[in-house]
Amino acid sequence: MEFEHTALIETKNATVERTSSKLIEVRFKPDVKLDAEGLGEVIMVKRQMCGKDQADILIVFPADLDFALNILTVDHSGVQGGCAESRRLAFVAQSSINQRLAEIYFRYYPRQHETQVFLEEADARAWLDQTIVLS
Fold first, then answer.
1. Element (H, E) at 118
2. Rounded Cα distance, 22 and 94, in Å
3. pLDDT > 90: what percent of the chain?
4. Contacts for 85 with CB less than 8 Å, ≥ 6 apart
5. CA–CA separation, 34 vs 49, rounded Å?
6. How far is the C-alpha of 92 from the C-alpha of 111, rounded, in Å?
7. Model confidence over 39-55: pLDDT tens digits?
8. Are 65 and 33 in contact (CB under 8 A)?
9. Measured at the alpha carbon of residue 34, what is the angle toward residues 32 and 37, in degrees to the nearest 5?
10. Are 85 and 113 in contact (CB under 8 A)?
11. Do the strands 55-60 and 33-34 form a parallel or antiparallel pair, or are they unpaired?
12. Statement: residue 80 has pLDDT above 60
């Protein structure tokens, strides 16, 4: 499949990469302070990568990510538009505090599609590698 979009875009807070026709990977950078504006930029880039193709999303936070607490009080996907065509979201926290905060966040602001929070990237990839069984 040919892509109509750039395969890798770097923002001040993350890299967003279309690694295959079925997967977009978002890797937040260490040593930056994530705020609502920076997160909004990442979401807009991710949406651009989504295009018209359905894709799963893998988001990886560094274990020691510094962030403004107010990012937890906004439905960023709702505000920014998100990826309408995205499917599953695997969120890799890499620390127990990030894992707990992500679980609380997604409970308050649930996504339309299946979302799971993981401590380790290998577990997230294993979950994404599972085939979806439609009932």
1. strand 115-118
2. 23
3. 45
4. 50, 51, 52, 53, 54, 55
5. 21
6. 16
7. 888 988 888 887 767 78
8. no
9. 125
10. no
11. unpaired
12. no
Q: What SS3 class is residue 117?
A: strand
**Residues 45, 83 contacting (CB under 8 angstroms):** no
The two tokens of residue 95 are 């620390």
Residue (of 56, 76, 63, 75) closest to 29 by Cα position: 63
CA distance 47 to 84: 8
Q: What is the pTM of this model?
A: 0.85
Q: Note whether 8 and 25 are within 8 A (CB).
A: no
Task: Give 81: exposed, middle or buried? Use CB within 10 Å, 0-12, 13-18, 19+.
Answer: exposed
CATH number listed for the domain at residues 8-129: 3.30.750
Burial (CB count within 10 angstroms: exposed 0-12, middle 13-18, buried 19+), residue 73: exposed
Cα–Cα distance list, 78 to 31, 74, 81, 121, 123 (Å): 27, 8, 5, 26, 27
Confidence of residue 3 (pLDDT cuts 50, 70, 90): very low
Token pair of 20 as six digits: 């295959």
